[in-house]
Amino acid sequence: MNTIRMIFLDQEGRVRWGYKFLTLVLILELLLPVLLVFVSGFGLALSLPAMRERGIVDAAGILAEEYRETAEGVWAICLLSIQNLLLTGLCLLFGRLLLKRKPGQLGFRGGFVLGAKELGIGLGLGAGLLLTASVLIVLSGGARIEVSGQENLSSWLLGYLALFVLVGLGEETAFRGYAMASMAQTENPPLICCFTGLIFGLAHSANSSFSMMGFVNISLVGILLALLVLKTGRLWMSIGFHIAWNFAQGCIAGFPVSGMETRSLFVMESTGNALLSGGGFGAEGSVLTTVVLVAALAAVYRLYWKGNNT
């Protein structure tokens, strides 16, 4: 009995953190996909009559050719938005039921002014680092930048902005809020930052054009964001960073966002080695982004430890 107890419980009688962390895997790999199929399928069924009436689909539900490109983009935005709303809800629910933590204990705390300030810092940091990496990629000859000239750009940018807000909310709730809370009992900040960062990198492995450099850079971003959460005790800065990083990468600089194409103000055309340009995975696949992230990580790491030793 004692042996069995030791397998599941630590010396203080708490469920071992590894089992708690596995519930995040359960959410991501089982509950979220199942719920997404049901919710998106239900939404599609509700919208079909209106789409038939407008000629977007025919009687058999086949998409009209002239709407195909637009519909695919809109569907991707809607599907990913629903996915991240569900992810946020599931993590908050399981955080309350299994981890016994309220939303505030997962990082959603602080007054409006403090939250807005940290969100703004995160937005500036995320956009600044991504655009710095983009400039380095262009200057190195890895890519050439041009004005996109795409039609209806403002509407698309608003749609992608809404999407990236929800992506930032969902992924930060999961990989920083829930994941770090499940490991809190280790009382080991380096382990918490590195492990959650690596898992964050692995979580993107199914994305289009995923590469080893993509894994390295997304893991570095994960470690950086974990440090920000440890420093502040809140998610606002990491959420802001995540939103701005994705939006600046896809909708301003014109890179794929972790392999996903978006509409953008500019278009980046790869002209050099994929190690410099990032290839089909975007700026996150570039070694120059690695340099920027390592420098940022060193600065934040120093700030974190300085703040904890004064």
Describe the model.
The chain has helices spanning 2-8, 17-53, 68-97, 112-139, 153-182, 189-202, 212-232, 236-252, 274-277, 287-308, and strands at residues 143-147, 266-270. It has 310 residues and is mainly alpha-helical. It has one domain (2-308). A two-stranded antiparallel sheet has the order 1-2. This is CPBP family intramembrane metalloprotease.
- The helix content is 55-70%
Q: Given the helix and strand composition, which structural class is it?
A: mainly alpha
> Main β-sheet: number of strands, strand sense, barrel status?
2 strands, antiparallel
Q: What is Rg?
A: 21 Å
Number of strands: 2
Count every helix, treating DSSP H or I runs of 4 or more residues as helices: 10
Instruction: Give the overall form.
Output: globular
Mean pLDDT: 93
Distance between the termini: 46 Å
Order of helices and strands: HHHHEHHHHEHH
Number of domains: 1
Unreliable stretches (pLDDT < 50, length at least 5) are none
Approximately how much beta-strand content do the residues carry? under 5%
Strand order of the largest sheet: 1-2
